[in-house]
Fold:
Amino acid sequence: MIKKIVNEIIRKESRQEAINVLNQATNDEINEFINYYNDEKHNICCLVIDTIKDRLISENKMSSDGDFGNLLKKLYDNNDNY
Structure:
């Protein structure tokens, strides 16, 4: 089910990373992801993946490469241009 959702809402070049992150998610995190998907809040699904990856980075289980994670840094960097 997770792979089906990811294929539907995540751009093609980021899908494998999303799957890798979600494969290491807790049951609660997966449920949160699915609940937002069911509520058609697909942007929030991406934020859930960001949050999971941030946790995995802090636990040294994943590197900070890729499209997900470091949400606050991305927000800060994007606001730096204004």
In short: The chain has one domain: 2-79. DSSP finds five helices and no strands in the chain. Residues 42-58 form the longest helix (17 residues).
